Structure formats: C-alpha cells, structure tokens
Fold these 2 entries.
Entry 1:
Amino acid sequence: MVYSALVKTVFRALYGEPPDLSGGREGDGLVLVADGVGGLDLCGTALRYVMGAQKLPYVVKVVPWGHGLGRWHADLTNAVNRDAHARKVAEEVRAFRDKAPDAPVYLVGKSGGTGVVVKALEHLPDDAVDGVVLISPALSPSYDLTRALRAVRREAVVFWSPLDVIVLGAGTRIFGTIDRVKTVSAGLVGFRPPREPTEGQAAQYAKLRQVRWRPRMAPTGYLGGHVGPDSPAFLRKYVVPLLRGGPAPDGGFPPVGQSSRPGDAPIT
C-alpha cells in the first residue's frame, strides 16, 4: 500500500493532475475503469493521462466502488458491496447505450476491480459492450466466465504474470480472491477454461485472449509485479490500442480464443 501510494505521487509529479474525461461530445465512446482494492486508483489515473494526451474520443470514468483509501480488506471481502457497484456499472452501460447505441463501450478492470467488471457483465444483455480488458485479475482461476463473455461483442483480453507472487499468489491464498476463494489468482496463472466445454461455453471462451507477461514488456515499466501494468507506458502500448478497436499490439499476444498459459490448448 505504501509503495502504491508512492507510485501515485510519482505519477502526479511527472504528469500533473489527471485530466477530467467524464464529459465528452456526441458520438464519443465510453470507457469505465474499476481499479484495485485500497482506493488508490492507479490504473484509472494512468489511463486518464494516456487517453487525455492522445485526445481520444472517449468519456473515461473511474468507478468508485471501494470503501475508501487504505480499506483494502473491506474492498476484498465485502461481496455485497462488490455486487451492488457491479449493478451500478451495468446500469450506467445500459443508460449510455440508450443514448448512444452505436458508440463503442469498453470496461477495464484491474486486480480486485476485475470482480466488479465481471459481475457487471453478468447483469448485461448479450453484446452489450465492445470489449473488456482484465489486468492482473484477482479472481479465482476456475471462475466461470461464460455468462460475462456473452455480454462482450468482440473480445476480452486478460493480462497475467507468473511473477505477481506476493499480491496474487500469497495474498489471495491468505485473504481470498475478490470472488471469495482462498487460492492463487487468475492474474498469476491465467483463467482455466472448462476442460470439456459445452457448445455454448466454447462459443463464449472463443472471445477470450490471455496474455502472459514477457520480458519484452519491461521497458514499459511492467516488470511482472502487481503495480507494473499501471504504468502509463504499458497502458499506452498494450491497452489503449485495444480500446480503440484496432489490431492487437505486438509483444506476445496470442490469437483470439487462445491462451499464453504454458501448455494450454486453444480455448475452443
């Protein structure tokens, strides 16, 4: 927590106050960001810097779903609070779609915030959002994503790292994941698709792309640990292109419907 607070201070020293991107013009798309536990909102802050600097036509909002600064344990363990804010996210997506049915909508979750994003997707109709990015997800690896993926029109991209051993290894083994299972998280080992999927599950998991941390990502500031993917340079290179609906960036991306989990077969 102290390290994360220091990183946020560095962000503000380097980039100033993050721009307010909650307005927008007619036709602009929507990006909703649910950050990790503890209330620091590092990922959302950095993404606002990057998207503001590129002047992209999106409204970018950070979802305030936690209990306040430093209250990471309450954020992690209060499932009622998680689900209530997930419903609010789903309501905001529906309201935006009613006003701008053709504008793109993306959800981004980091760490514990991925639980809010996935639960929100489960409340939405099919193809409600264009895409989803789950960064260092603090969900259990065997969490069934089928219902959430139905709400995704294009693809869901997961960034995970086998080096995230403190927070998503030991941390969630002791305190539990955001879906309340005491195990290592999907952000450490990737999601495990059903071994014998039904036809419906296979169709949904075909939208899932899992991206393992690689040393080539290190120049962006992502060294494989938990705070690294909050780096503006990482978000600029690997995440923002996904939100623009363009091709996946270079640097270890497997094809859609496949996983970079060692030894995994295609998710079909």
Entry 2:
Amino acid sequence: MLRCCALLAAGTAEALTSLTARRRIRATAAHARRRRIHLSAAKDDGATLPGATYDVLHEDDDILVVDKGAGLLFVPGRQPHKADSLISRVRSTHGDAVGVAHRLDRDTSGVCVLAKTKAALRALSMAFQERQVNKTYVGAVAGVPAAEGVIDDAIGKIMTPEGYNRIALLSEAEGGRAATTAYRVLDTAGDSSLLELEPKTGRAHQLRVHLASIGHPLLGDALHGGASHERLCLHSARLAFAHPATKRPVAFASDAPFDAMGGPPPR
C-alpha cells in the first residue's frame, strides 16, 4: 500500500513538473512574441507619427478641405495604437457626421476633402467613383524619365514569398484592375526628378507601383524600391470637383513641401 502511494505521489510530482515546464515554455514563447511585436512597433508600427498634423484650407456647411501632413493616418486602424488619425481628430471637433469619400496613405501629404453631411458624402462618393474629380499629385522620383508619358498597367494584390499581401503589377486576367497614370517632368536635379502626376483611376498604391514599374520609384518608398529618405515624397497638390451642394466647380491646391531632390523647395 505504501509502495502504491509512493508511486502515485511520484507520478503526480512528475505530472506537475511536466505541466510547469509546459507552462514555462508557453510563457517564454508568448514573451518572445510580445518582444518581437514591441521591437517591430518601435521601428514603425503603422501608427500616426509624432508631430503629424493638418491645416484647414476651406470649410463651408457641406465640405471640409484640409492639407494633411505626411505621417498622419487618414482613418483609424483596428488596433488601439492606430486610433489617432485625421478623421478621428476632425470628428472630435466637428462631430461624427463627418464622412470619408476618398483617402490618402499615411505617408502621403496634401489636399483631401471630407463631407460634413450625408448628402455631401453621397455626392462626393459618386464623383470619385465616376472619376469626375480631377486629382493632381507631385512626386520626387529616382532618375530622369522621359519628359512625359502614360503608364497603363493593371495592378492588384499579390502574395510575397514571405507571406505578405502587397500591391504590384498584376494583369486583369490574374485578377488585377485597370490603372492609368499620366505624368510630366516639372524639374530635374542630379539623378532625381520632380513629376506632376495625374491618376486617371484611383487604385491603392497606384502611383507608387506605376512609378516603380518604369524604374523611377518615389524617393522614400522603400516598399517599392525607392531610396531611403526622411519621408515618402508624394503630395496631393490639387483637387478639382463640382461642389456637392452648389454644383459649381471648385478647386483647392497645396504646394509640395519638397523639390526634385526631396529637400525643402526654394522660397
């Protein structure tokens, strides 16, 4: 009987030791995952960058036009650290009725328009969908392309060998969507150029992918092969559209905060 109890006690101790070891292993693995997440976040966690802000260019009863700074998320992300964004800041001062008809990437600066009423949101959304909004961007790129040109290549999501989704050239037969970008050279400086860009379609990352595809990636666009830079050199310089309430043509502009080399433009 005593031997049986001893065996049971030994078995229980062994089981407890094994359970403790498994818990320790799981805890260590969880800590490692948290550490990797923390280190990744320290590099760039996708949140709004410190000091990013915006300026109001125009406001009336129906629309709010702003000049968004680089590094400011347009809309909040799902994670708590991505709560700070242009739309969350505007809604904190103008109310939750403010709506989004289009977006800019976090690292793209420049002109964008927000709707203050449901009617304005419907009208603006339709205008963007029907390509009735004239959009002009300015970008600084590596190299010196032809004086002007049109890039007409479909783009879509692909899976990288590392398992990440990325926007890239993708034929329509493979699921890509038609995309067209017109450009012209505004200035050159050494081995880089300042371009005026007119996207005829509104695909995500369209300008970045198209410019990289012709061998002239945007300065600061590491995702698509661009040279390292303090910011992505892409700026929404002008929006022109019919006012959602008056139907009269309106246009709003903002100068690019960089030159052909990606530095501050001359005063």
